[in-house]
Amino acid sequence: xSGPITITSPQQLSSLLSSSRIVVVxxxxxxxxxxxxxxxxxxxxxxxxxxxxxxxxxxxxAEQQTQISESYAVVDVPTFLIFKNGSQIQKLNGNNAKQxxxxxxxxxxxxxxxxxxxxxxxxSSSGGTWIGAGLPRGYKDVTDQVDAxxxxxxxxxxxxxxxxxxxxxTQPTTVxxxxxxxxxxxxxxxxxxxxxxxxxQLMLYVPFNSTLKIHTIQITSAPxxxxxxEDAPMRPKTIHLFTNLQxxxxxxEAEDVPATQTIELKPSDWDEKTATAKLELRFVKFxxxxxxxxxxxxxxxxxxxxxxxxxxxxxxxxxxxxMGQLQKPEDD
Length: 332
Fold this sequence. Notes:
By secondary structure, the protein is an alpha+beta fold. It folds into two domains: 5-113, Glutaredoxin (3-Layer(aba) Sandwich), CATH 3.40.30.10; 121-320, PITH domain (Jelly Rolls). Helices cover 18% and strands 29% of the residues. The strands form three sheets. Strands 6, 7, 9, 10, 11, 12, 13 and 15 form an eight-stranded antiparallel β-sheet that branches. Strands 1-3-2-4-5 form a five-stranded mixed β-sheet. Strands 8-14 form a two-stranded antiparallel sheet. Helix 2 (33-49) packs parallel to helix 4 (97-113). It is globular, with a radius of gyration of 21 Å. The model is unreliable at 115-128, 179-188 and 328-332 (pLDDT under 50).
């Protein structure tokens, strides 16, 4: 059995995040009694669950490695960050050993059963790529530059599709069925869309394999089957966009980070035939983009859940990113 890896530089942590499917990081300091107590439990978890390139445990001295602590907004110790496929998915503060243990064990079990297929493999044999709206002159669909290994979606209902469903190249099944009664219910066939879980908000982190110039984002969301159905999921309304972040935002954290652009969709923005709306971006603000966060703050209606079927990224692709390196956004 091996213990946690001691992180001594941002580059070492970045390399670790790119080489292991699950990474758990313990931010601690030497003088904190709570850090010491949780550290013993953490070491035991590492000894039982750590597996090379699958589940890796690491520890960071928060006082010595201030650059790493600041990068991930670690203020108090102990703090535990959990990463999956290079993207932060959970942040645990304080001394809740049971919560930490349950979260790590659950993810370790998922890592064992998770398929290793790359993004788009399931849909690569389809007859063509789904495009919900026309392409602006001079630009193309660059969704193939999405780095599926780093995708992260917060507050989604696991009874429906996963984050990768949003970027499938196939036509959404409910759009193929056509608008009308039952079109959005998905009572027949697979549920190839995403719905939010406990409320209407969704937080999506999208890293790219190359730097992009993003002109437009297409969002497909099948309409409610009936205006009288209070349980039907809503279409997104207010969307905050953030560029070039190193990891996903928490919902509370998003309130303190200035958005690159905020868009409020109107009912008239949705194409009746394709159930797709275009997010027209301020193009000058979306140059050299290597990651994107879409925060769906609310939906169009009085429902409790929001639905998205597909997302397409329209623009230009640039030079390939050097993966595994921490990057900082350039100043405008």
